[in-house]
Design a protein that fits this description.
Number of strands: 0
Oligomer: single chain
Structural class: mainly alpha
Number of helices: 8
Order of helices and strands: HHHHHHHH
Distance between the termini: 40 Å
Radius of gyration: 19 Å
CATH class: Mainly Alpha
CATH architecture: Alpha/alpha barrel
Strand content: under 5%
């Protein structure tokens, strides 16, 4: 439990930090276009951290299940812990194809995900805040807005997440690359393979994202106010 939570904290910190810094490159940083570009930039950078973290999480969760369900054909209990998983992945397939396995699909997922995430929040604020500003939104509306933002972002990127997760969990050398896996999956299971599990993902995203952006917004306003008072 500690490892996934720590990974999520790092990823969220990277995303919001890079997006906030990137906004300084625009004269008007709060347009939908600016927010999409800065969000995409944040998604791109954090993918290089997120991909190996999710590789470890996926493989530790799935080991032992693959043989039972004839799904991923992983050997039973390959890895002792997250560090052992990273080490064995590197030994068996190197850095690019082992540790960073699934990076291209993580990029394909997270660039559009965050390109949609920040504009979706801005859209909600403009239309559901009394005067179109975050600071004037009530707590319950902020939570609704966070949930709405998460649903929009996952709706845009979910098919890529399906491919990434299943490819990372697949046994070594089973496919030439992630695109080979995607094509074979489509031929065997049809387009439905790319939407399988979307409802549970959405239900999970609602409580998670309901708090993510509102908490970030609250902390940012708090620290900005503190810094202004100390100047």
């Amino acid at each position: 439990m500690a490892s996934p939570m720590f990974g999520v904290a790092i990823i969220n910190g990277i995303v919001f930090s890079i997006q906030n810094v990137s906004k300084g490159l625009f004269d008007n940083p709060d347009t939908y276009f600016s927010l999409a570009v800065t969000g995409a930039s944040a998604g791109c950078v954090q993918s290089f951290i997120c991909s190996p973290i999710e590789l470890v999480k996926t493989r530790l969760q799935m080991q032992g299940i693959g043989q039972q369900r004839k799904l991923f054909a992983l050997s039973t209990h390959l890895y002792k812990d997250p560090i052992d998983c990273i080490k064995e992945s590197y030994i068996r397939q190197g850095f690019q194809y082992g540790v960073m396995r699934g990076l291209s699909m993580t990029l394909a997922r997270d660039i559009p995900l965050f390109a949609a995430y920040f504009p979706a929040w801005q859209f909600f604020v403009l239309y559901f805040s009394p005067i179109g500003k975050e600071a004037d939104m009530s707590m319950h509306m902020s939570l609704v807005g966070g949930a709405f933002t998460g649903i929009v972002a996952w709706a845009v990127s979910y098919p890529f997440d399906v491919i990434k997760s299943r490819y990372q969990a697949a046994r070594d050398h089973a496919y030439k690359n992630v695109w080979d896996y995607a094509v074979r999956s489509f031929r065997m299971e049809g387009w439905q393979v790319f939407t399988r599990g979307f409802l549970p993902c959405t239900l999970r995203a609602i409580p998670t994202n309901a708090f993510t952006y509102p908490v970030y917004s609250f902390l940012k306003q708090t620290f900005d106010t503190t810094l202004d008072d100390n100047v």
